[in-house]
Write a structure and sequence with these properties.
single chain, about 260 residues, mainly alpha, two-stranded antiparallel ribbon, about 80% helix
Length: about 260
């Protein structure tokens, strides 16, 4: 599920940023697309963090408490629906405050408390809570595994390595921009605010690209470290190749039949 969400974000965000580069950050796709399409990238990033937390908690239960009943598929589905609902709710303020003005889709007044306070809450609730929960779960998993037999340790080592890598990469790529926004918005709440200089805007753009790249990196990590995901991708590619081959053969047979009828 994490890989599928990141595939969606990896397809949407690069196209969105290329569009902005080509149009010099102008928006010609209408008011509602500005309100709905642009915030989807942030929603996908929030979902990535939530799904990583679900994965960590699921592995934590399976490894640390092996004699307890594992989560059913229905429990996992409910957790993922909750993550989706949470991502939509916690990012709704962004959709409300973003607007189309002078052919630009942007937050008109970042110092407005209707935008700054929810953004700060987002940082504290989403980033800090996720960092604490995921780090604690992974620490417990690693501690439990170190005390297991060599055979059991070997079985769990691959999934632990995958969890640690995707967690580290997620926070490495997404946290810097959130910290920048937190400091910038706090400066407007407690003081006269930090001026939006060109260097600050360039730094924000750079960190935004780094933030978005998380969605592109996760599928690569999964493909490199998860055998099941490799098989899933290969099966899709094989089915696509088989479909194209069969379609070409069918078209060739139709053309041959048409020629024979014309003769």
């Amino acid at each position: 599920m994490l890989a599928l969400v990141d595939f969606f974000a990896a397809a949407l965000n690069p196209v969105l940023y290329m569009y902005w580069i080509v149009t010099d950050y102008k928006w010609y796709l209408g008011y509602w697309s500005c309100k709905i399409l642009v915030p989807l990238g942030t929603v996908a990033t929030t979902m990535s963090g939530g799904i990583i937390a679900v994965l960590s908690f699921d592995r934590h239960r399976a490894i640390v408490y092996p004699f307890k009943r594992n989560f059913k598929l229905s429990h996992v589905k409910i957790s993922l629906l909750f993550v989706l609902f949470y991502a939509l709710i916690i990012n709704i303020y962004y959709s409300i405050n973003i607007s189309l003005k002078d052919s630009r889709c942007m937050v008109v007044d970042p110092s407005n408390k209707a935008y700054s306070i929810p953004t700060i809450i987002y940082f504290l609730v989403n980033d800090c809570t996720l960092l604490s929960v995921i780090s604690f779960s992974n620490y417990r998993i690693v501690s439990k595994t170190m005390g297991c037999k060599r055979e059991d340790r070997k079985d769990n080592r691959r999934i632990i390595r995958l969890l640690i890598v995707i967690t580290f990469v997620f926070f490495l790529l997404t946290l810097p921009r959130d910290v920048l926004h937190f400091v910038y918005l706090m400066s407007w709440i407690v003081g006269s605010g930090i001026n939006s200089s060109k260097s600050l805007l360039d730094l924000n753009s750079f960190l935004k690209v780094i933030n978005v790249s998380n969605s592109c990196v996760n599928p690569i990590i999964f493909y490199a470290m998860h055998a099941g995901f490799q098989d899933f991708i290969k099966s899709i590619l094989c089915k696509t190749k088989s479909f194209v081959t069969n379609r070409r053969m069918a078209l060739s047979e139709i053309e041959s039949f048409a020629r024979s009828q014309s003769v």
